[in-house]
Amino acid sequence: MIIARDLTKTYGSKVAVDGVSFTVEPGRVTGFLGPNGAGKSTTMRMMIGLDRPTSGTVTVGGRNYADVPAPLRSVGALLEARALHPGRSARNHLRWLAASNGIPAKRVDEVLDLVGLTDVADQRVGRFSLGMGQRLGIAVALLGDPPVVVLDEPVNGLDPEGIRWVRNLARELAGQGRTVLVSSHLMSEMALTADHLIVIGRGRVLADCSMAQFITDHAASYVRVRTPRTAEAAELLVRSGLDVDRHGSGVDVELRVQGLDAAGIGDLVGGAGLHLHELTLVQSSLEDAFMTLTASSVEYAAGPVATAGAAR
Ligand SMILES: Nc1ncnc2c1ncn2[C@@H]1O[C@H](COP(=O)(O)OP(=O)(O)OP(=O)(O)O)[C@@H](O)[C@H]1O
């Protein structure tokens, strides 16, 4: 597992990571989320010894990365584009890494196959597309068959098939009992991939909980009620102590009701003899929950987009 304790990194006066503590457990995919500049990459870099903490510690499998005898066999990482020798082939790049880490050469062909690069293994990596480079980076991460895998934006540059492949791979690695930490900006993808979430904003941990808990805590849900007798239904529901918001107008009018489940609301409205045309539980997405939680910790927020209608 990965354990961070009071981990802090400053660059001059900039506090990139501000006393974060968390544990990344084996056997599940942990999503690492945060707005741009939140400190995700810096934290991941410290995990694998590419940056030194200003204070605090982060250990992988109980050791500091610097003390790990065979790093590629202990933790595999895909971080921002690695320094690849552009003239070297993918196969030779992996062979060189395998030899310098005491990994048998046959593992090179296994990982090439695993990431789908066998057919281009002898091409120079300088000619690789972004997606092929990502696949090669993942091959490097898996070369030492490590128990801990850290992937920073692994789906960056991948097409839909590649994105699905990374999702399945991450889940398979976790299913084998490995510790898997994945960062991504693609919330819809993260919702399908991660079991657990660590969310950071401005260098601090904002949430550390299961995906389901995160959505329950931070995503709004309401029951959409449509009835031809909107005003009467609204009055009845308010009288029953529920929160009721009216949205839209004319035939598109709906009530958004909070405070009772759909069945209870249906019983109330139907019991009063009012016809129901719709009764739907609307749950907001991981993206909505993430935006709600991190709204105040966005470093580079854009203003609202001016539209022609806004001036009217
Ligand atoms: N080498 C560096 N020197 C100075 N500041 C840095 C350095 N590396 C990161 N930072 C700053 O530290 C903060 C955290 O950056 P980091 O790259 O870890 O964030 P991130 O969450 O990975 O962001 P993104 O989602 O944009 O990749 C940012 O404000 C960034 O500008």
UniProtKB/TrEMBL annotation:
This is ABC-2 type transport system ATP-binding protein. SUPFAM superfamilies: P-loop containing nucleoside triphosphate hydrolases. Residues 2-227 form the ABC transporter domain. Keywords: ATP-binding, Nucleotide-binding, Transport. GO terms for molecular function: ATP binding; ATP hydrolysis activity. Belongs to the ABC transporter superfamily.
